[in-house]
Automatic annotation (TrEMBL):
Residues 339-573 form the ABC transporter domain. It is a multi-pass membrane protein. It comes from Dictyobacter aurantiacus. This is Helicase. One of its GO terms (cellular component) is plasma membrane. Keywords: ATP-binding, Cell membrane, Helicase, Hydrolase, Membrane, Nucleotide-binding, Transmembrane, Transmembrane helix, Transport. InterPro entries: AAA+_ATPase, ABC1_TM_dom, ABC1_TM_sf, ABC_transporter-like_ATP-bd, ABC_transporter-like_CS, P-loop_NTPase, Type_1_exporter. One of its GO terms (molecular function) is ATP binding. The chain crosses the membrane at residues 20-44, 56-77, 139-159, 165-183, 237-257, 269-287.
Length: 581
């Protein structure tokens, strides 16, 4: 789909407007280099004509010094221009990357189940990187090159209209020809980029699964795969380079043709129309100057076309609507929260209900044990409470306030959730626990670790809170990772804690530690625990048993336990862990 001018304009305005002083400086620097490129040949002409008309040596030396100084100034301006252009590009792309990242984080879970993380990384990083040229150089440099070409042609017209006309026609033909030639090589370079992306995709996937590859003895097979992809890339690269040679040769020939034409014209006008030698030289230098913008204009137009894909993908992602709307209310108390679900139904896919007519009332400070076989909808109910999804019908209230009317920041501050899959970041222990919130002091972090029984683990760390944890928490046991997740929630001091208890068996010592940590975490807070162990269930005041998305049983734990007819009592008789497996 072609990218509309509006999209280009919108992107440029959004990301260049905030740094307009830099953009203005960049345009001025560009105008400076263009101006000097146009003036320098005029100085040369003055020198040559002065020398041939035997002007005073002092004059000639002054002209030469002026020429030299301008050439040096031009170089300095070119360096400053490159510096400012890079600065503009980095600031614009960083702002765009941050906006995309924030947008992705705010998009609801439905979006994330459809789009794989790899795809989003490609958008947030790959596409944005390829747009950096668009921001810094493409538009401004394209404009600059057009201006330079136009300036040269106007000056040539002023020198002699015949020269101006001939070289204008030549410039147009050269633009079309070079564009066609580049067009021949483009598909081959695209194929090379595709092969390179496949090679890196293969590498990334295999390196991600190093442990599986090694343990299944597939190392040799992986190397064979790698050599296949590498060979494919080499073939495409060779082809693209081979095609580039004749293209490059022809471009050089076209440029040489322009210079020859300028020399012939200059020589003709010198001999037959009384043109000065300096002006003939001026024509040659201008024709020479023209070749660079002609080539660059073609390159930049092509790059603009290529960046269209990235622009389109980035714009589409930014336009992706956020279906979980932020609410205005922030008035949740800092104490334990009351929870109420009123006839809540939910489905991920239309027509496939996952939760049906759930009713729930929890007093502040009470604990609900959520039981049910795998796939019964327990995690889904907790996701609705954290507003990762909204119910299809019914409502969920915290302290009598519908969570849809609460601000998402307030909700996420007051509802702490620990899932079975703890996501440990490749960052320091401090950052993993505070989640980069610098208002949380080290003393608070240390106190949380102590309270949750992690002091021995902490003492074993080489750099204390600065110790960097391995990506994915690969250096931690499952129990330690869970305890760190508890500490994260503990530091935020929420009024409702939701725990999805680890179903895997832990050693008795770790299990004891977790039990104590859960007690600490629930003290003075309302809790909902997806329980897999009897010991956990026993701390619940209420029990809800889900079955295929419906509430099979709900009541006070002790009442249900004492009622031999209750499903809960049966579960206890069979053995919870066996019954829910
Ligand atoms: N993102 C999703 N998209 C579509 N269906 C989903 C999604 N997540 C869960 N489901 C389906 O919803 C149903 C309930 O899943 P849920 O994870 O809530 O069950 P659960 O009781 O928590 O199971 P477990 O104890 O194994 O975690 C299952 O049939 C599951 O396949």
């Amino acid at each position: 789909m072609p990218v509309s001018l509006d999209t280009y304009r919108h992107l440029l305005l959004t990301y260049l407007k905030p740094q307009w002083p830099r953009v203005v400086l960049l345009i001025l620097l560009l105008a400076g280099t263009i101006g000097i490129s146009l003036i320098n040949p005029l100085i040369l002409r003055a020198f040559v004509d002065g020398a041939s008309s035997q002007r005073a040596l002092a004059d000639l030396i002054t002209i030469a010094i002026f020429f030299l100084v301008l050439s040096i100034v031009r170089q300095i301006i070119a360096i400053a221009e490159a510096y400012v252009a890079t600065d503009v590009a980095l600031l614009a792309t960083n702002a765009l990357r941050a906006d995309l990242m924030l947008h992705c984080l705010q998009l609801d879970s439905t979006f994330h189940t459809i789009h794989a993380p790899g795809e989003l990384i490609e958008r947030v990083d790959g596409d944005v990187t390829s747009l950096s040229n668009f921001f810094s150089r493409m538009v401004i440099a394209l404009f600059g090159n057009l201006l330079l070409l136009l300036g040269v042609l106007i000056l040539l017209f002023l020198v002699d209209w015949r020269v101006g006309l001939t070289l204008t026609i030549f410039a147009l033909i050269a633009l079309v020809m070079i564009n066609r030639l580049h067009g021949l090589a483009t598909p081959h370079w695209e194929a090379e980029r595709q092969a390179s992306a496949e090679l890196f995709g293969f590498l990334e996937e295999r390196l991600n699964g190093t442990e599986d590859v090694r343990s299944s003895g597939a190392t040799l097979y992986m190397l064979q795969g790698l050599s296949r992809y590498a060979r494919q890339h080499l073939c495409k690269l060779r082809m693209a380079i081979m095609i580039n040679f004749p293209t490059w040769g022809t471009v050089t020939f076209v440029n040489a043709l322009g210079r020859v034409l300028a020399l012939l014209l200059g020589a003709y006008l010198y001999w037959y129309a009384g043109m000065s030698a300096g002006t003939a030289l001026l024509i040659f230098i201008y024709a020479n100057t023209m070749t660079t913008p002609i080539e660059q204009i073609v390159d930049q137009l092509r790059e603009l076309q290529q960046s269209a894909g990235s622009i389109q993908r980035v714009a589409t992602l930014l336009e992706e609507p956020q279906t979980i709307a932020d609410g205005p209310r922030t008035d949740l108390p800092s104490s334990a929260l009351a929870v109420a679900c009123e006839d809540v139904s939910f489905s991920y896919t239309e027509g496939v209900p996952v939760l049906r007519h759930i009713q729930l009332q929890l007093e502040p400070g009470s604990v609900l044990g959520l039981l049910g076989r795998t796939g019964s909808g327990k995690s889904t109910l907790t996701k609705l409470l954290a507003r990762l999804y909204d119910p299809v019908s019914g409502s969920i209230c915290l302290n009598g306030i519908d969570i849809r009317s609460l601000s998402l920041d307030t909700l996420h501050e007051r509802v702490g959730i620990v899932t079975q899959e703890v996501h440990i970041l490749h960052a320091s222990v401090r950052d993993n626990l505070t989640l980069f919130d610098s208002t949380i002091k080290d003393t608070q972090v240390l106190a949380a670790l102590q309270t949750l029984g992690l002091q021995h683990w902490y003492q074993s760390l080489e750099d204390g809170l600065d110790t960097v944890l391995a990506p994915g928490g690969s250096g931690l046991s499952a129990g330690e990772a869970q305890l760190l997740a508890f500490a994260r929630v503990f530091l935020r001091d929420p009024g409702l804690v939701i725990l999805d208890e680890a179903s895997s068996r832990l050693d008795p010592a770790t299990e004891r530690l977790l039990e104590q940590a859960i007690d600490t975490l629930l003290k003075g807070r309302t809790g909902i625990i997806i329980a897999h162990r009897l010991s956990t269930v026993q701390r619940a005041d209420h029990i809800m048993i889900l079955e295929q998305g419906e509430c099979r049983e709900y009541g006070v734990r002790q009442d249900l336990a004492c009622d031999p007819e209750s499903h809960f009592a049966q579960l206890l008789r069979i053995g919870l862990e066996e019954a829910l497996a």
